[in-house]
Predict the 3D structure of the following.
Amino acid sequence: INVIQENISDENFNVERMADILCMSRSSLLRKIKILFNLSPIDFIRLIRLKKTAELIQEGKYRIGDICYMVGINSSSYFSKLFLKQFGMTPKEFEKQYQTSKEKVKIDLTESLIERNAAKNDAFADSAGADASLLQKSYLLQRLYINRLSRYAYF
């Protein structure tokens, strides 16, 4: 996570570069991130960038157009599309909501990941007819991994 945050403004930062910095193969990095977060490395990088974006919008020091370049996304339309997909509102709506409430809108990365994993587990149970107790155990294990990880990494 620190590697991503250090290179957040570099639009050329990608999975290969991250693997090189961490002295890992691309496939090893994929396996580790997939196990911990149930995301691909590129999706994980995007998620960290979007979380940083939300924090910068909440600070209120920068315009949204500038923030998109600060987090390494060169296209403002692509940035808006990613933000909408992740948070369910456009960056402008997010900014307005924050300004009107004057409370910090909490963006909890770990809860977001847990909800995604739970949704994927539910979809798997529906399609495969898997045992619900087994899925519940899987969900609890994922939550445990994410909670342990969040103790050592700052989101």
